[in-house]
Amino acid sequence: MNLSGIDTLIWDWNGTLLDDVNVNVRVINEMLLNRNLPQLDLNTYRDIFCFPVKQFHIQIGIDFEKESIEGVSAEYMERYKSYEKEIALHADVPFILDMINTKSINQYILSAAGKDDLLRMLGHFQLTGKFKGIYGSGDICATGKVEIGRKLMEDNALNPDKTLIIGDTLHDAEVAKALGVNCILYAGGHNSYDLLKSESEVITSLKDMKFA
Questions:
Q1: What is the pLDDT of residues 163-200, one digit of tens each?
Q2: Can you tell me the distance from the alpha carbon of 108 to that of 156, in angstroms, rounded to the nearest whole number?
Q3: φ and ψ at residue 10, rounded to 5 degrees
Q4: pTM higher than the cut 0.90
Q5: How far is it, in rounded angstroms, from Cα 95 to Cα 194?
Q6: Are 110 and 148 in contact (CB under 8 A)?
Q7: Which of 193, 196, 197, 166 is closest to 181 using CA atoms?
C-alpha cells in the first residue's frame, strides 16, 4: 500500500505495535475461570472483542449487576501486569517507526489504555522518543478513543486529509470515521481479518505500508 500524501500517522498501541493478544486471552480466561464461565479460544476472542470493553465483558458472561466495571477492570490490569515481561513488540516495530520518522512523518500514539500504563510500557521498549505525542485514557475502563482522538487532532492542528490511523480493531475504524481521517487495519491484533475487512483496507504485516 502506497501512502504518499500522508504527513501524520496515529498508531494504536495494544495489538498493533504491542503483540499482547495471547496474553490478553490468557488473562480473560483466568477471569472467566474464576467466575465458572466458559473459556475462549483465540479465534473466538478475535471475532468478538470490541469497545467499549464493558460490552465485550457482557458478551462473555460477566454480570455487571453483581460487579462493577471498575472492579473488573482493576482485576484485569492486575492479572495483565503479572504477564508483562512475556509481552513483546510485533516484528520490526522499532525499524518501521524509525523508517517512517526518516520520511518526516509525524507519529502519535492513541490508546484506550491508561496514560500511566501506556507511558510505562513505551518507556520499557524505549519507544517514547519516536512519537511526537502520546495520548492515553484517564482511567482503566477502556471505554473508547473518540474523545481522546479529537483532543489529539485539536492539540496538534492536524489535517484530516493527511492523517492516517493504524489500528487492529473495528473501534479504530470507528475512531477514524468520527475524526474524518484515513484508516488502515492490521490483522495481527485483537480482531480477525474477516471482521476487519468489512470496514477498511487490511494489512497482514506492518511492513506492507509503503511511503513514497
A1: 999 999 999 999 999 999 999 999 999 999 999 999 99
A2: 10
A3: -115, 110
A4: yes
A5: 28
A6: yes
A7: 166
